[in-house]
User: Fold Reverse transcriptase domain-containing protein from Artemisia annua.
Amino acid sequence: MTTSSTSSDGIWPCPFRRFHCYPDGVVGNKGIARLISHLKRLHLSTDERKCVLREAISTDHGLYMAVEETLKLFDQWLCGKCMTLHVVSRACHHPDSLVHFAEGSNDMSGYIVGISNPSNKESETKVTEGLVLDTELLDRVFKVPITTVKSIPHGCRLAFSQSPNHYC
Assistant:
């Protein structure tokens, strides 16, 4: 599953694109409010849909990571007990308890509270001649919008090779 990075035109794909909506997950309009509204209206509107998504998040590592990345980007968190979205500064009220978002807490696994991060069995990590090859990590690295240099100009190669902060 791919992550929920934005496109150059500011449209965020839905992290639940395999469920209840178009395969590409494009919500239609730009903006955070539009995607949050889409998630609440389409995916988290009925108990049946919430149950399906809770099960999918708890078993699919890629989906878990895509949803968590989207929630983090929008300063939202998902209560795994009632499958409701909240702003990070708000708590979720239940008759028997009060659930809070606490970033970095040991008993909470990030922006999805109450659902454990499933193990990443699909990740193909290989060790070849001292190099660790992880396809999921490589995919995430290539999706990060950073400026890269294809080659070092001849006049700069000596200085670059002596720099302690270069990566080969």
The longest strand covers residues 76-79.
